[in-house]
């Protein structure tokens, strides 16, 4: 098998991650997330009208009720369906609105009518954050115990935060509406990301236990390549299934499937280009720290050769570059 | 011997699962009979249409919100829903002061909401010589009345309650009859023993005065007492439509809510959208599963076929578990199902890739299979447990659809570990001996 030097090329990985995450975080900071009524509170009416209509007409129908700021959505492949999002309305107001639509467009079948009070929305947001944070912490604890190493757990976790930032950032960038099922998307992304990372970490653990005299970065690279076929097989299979679901699963599932697809891609990517490189960086850092007192005492670079084993020169060069 | 024992157990499990999931055998008394199999899993509101309503009890100066009060309110709501004739409603409490009501397949959700959310405290008030117009309202403290009309004039008037709806034994909608029959819809009522007595005494001693009928502090009518009313029955005539009269009768029969409630969330899914979602997600699921099956066969040939067989058993076990737990299948639940299918497949991919490595390293088939399973185990365990941890957190903190997602994911991951590891191993072992073993190449 050809050997790819993933660890050697890890800087490109960092760059790619930043190229995706930075715009996402900027979008998050400036536009924020496009929260649906699940999180903000409000009324949602999804109607199937008796005849085709346009956005302008719908807006005109809403105007007498004082819903100038309502969000109206129509999808091109279902011209008779309209989706209106506005502030929380009580039953009577909702009924009057429905009646107005039915009068003007020759009938209005209620596909979906939802009202979420503002307190419920706020609670849901709090709980969503809580669920993600608590889930993360418990998973870190589990990995720490199983791998007897906080280092592995934190590497998996940084990869995970990376994936969450990618998914949330892209949702913010594309202005996709986020509803309560987004929490499920995030948790699934968490699950997939951890799953994929754990498989690689597991192989690294196994190879470390074999106690071959192999430099750590080489060992990590080899471990990744050994499980690469599995990572790509599973990831590819999941993506193909999700793509089909995106096109044939109907509009209600679309954002959900989109989020999962993002999660699979970034989850697979981050195990290779985030979690494993972090282990290597960490290893280098701790080796250097161990060496430093020795260095000071002996004033020689000789132990470095023994410790890093592979290529002392590039390691040194990198170190001096960072100091600048 | 041990192996035979294991196979018998699995066979029994499969039979039990088929019965749980699809019930091909019914029982009439003690006599079993065959029936056409039907999936025994309930569909959630998002797939069959219906209303999901969350009510929150509101604190008032007189009535603090306690656990008992909310429980009593739930009881009243249950009675009201039964009166509406909804099939299989679920009513649960959530936390200290919330009640979740789910009404599958309901046709007029707005009517249901009016009926469920109203406090429906009926009071017969002694207003002496004062007649009040319909629509006049008392303030919360019961000290003054606001008259209807644009100027909203208020007059001080103490609310002196004679009897309340709590004393009613029955209430029905009817049409007005008598010498000057208008045929207008009315509500007739019947007091219980003590209430009837109180009513009779009061009407006997206050002839010529007004007895105002008040519902939730709003005046319905203000009739003058003509004569002593014996027997404890009477009628309320407001300006009702027939439907309003029926609703009021329902409310009076079921009793008033001990605490006022407020609708804080309601979601109605129309039946056609529910059916659409069900069809589309089933189609998406079928596509995903067919694709995965083809994918596994293409990659691993015969072992892929065996993994697929284990996968089908997985689906069977999952539906059996959901049926046994009386869980409902929701849209997020279907997503969780597909995710756990993915994890089951991933476990087999992990194992098979490992076997390939072992075979490449020169091991024999039997030894390769043995160490493939042993060495892949830790990765499968760790990745599945981390997913279980996430699902458990979602289950505890999530509500409604998220909880459904978490339930299916949790059960699905547990079962998929069993089928992907134990069942696939059994099938592979059965094939891994001459003359069949030459088909086990794991795509090498």
Task: Specify the helix fraction band of chain B.
Answer: 40-55%
Q: Over the alpha carbons, how many angstroms does the gyration radius of chain B reach?
A: 32 Å
Kindly report how far apart the N and C termini of chain B lie: 32 Å
Q: Helix- and strand-based class of chain B? A: alpha+beta
Query: What's the CATH H-level superfamily name of the largest domain in chain A?
Result: Multidrug efflux transporter AcrB transmembrane domain
Helix content of chain A: over 70%
- Counting helices, strands and paired strands, the structural category of chain A is alpha+beta
Average of pLDDT of chain A: 82
Strands side by side in the biggest sheet of chain A: 3-4-2-5
What is the highest CATH level, the class of the largest domain in chain B?
Answer: Alpha Beta
What series of H and E elements makes up the topology of chain B?
A: HEEEHEHEEHEEEEEEEHEEEHEHHEHHH
**Sheet with most strands of chain A:** 4 strands, antiparallel
CATH structural class of the largest domain in chain A: Mainly Alpha
Average per-residue pLDDT of chain B, rounded, comes to 85
What's the number of structural domains of chain A?
2
How many beta strands in the DSSP annotation of chain A? 6
CATH topology of the largest domain in chain B: Gyrase A, domain 2
Q: What distance separates the N and C termini of chain A? A: 39 Å
Strand content of chain B: 15-25%
The helix/strand series of chain A, from N terminus to C terminus, equals HEHEHEEHEHHEHHHHH
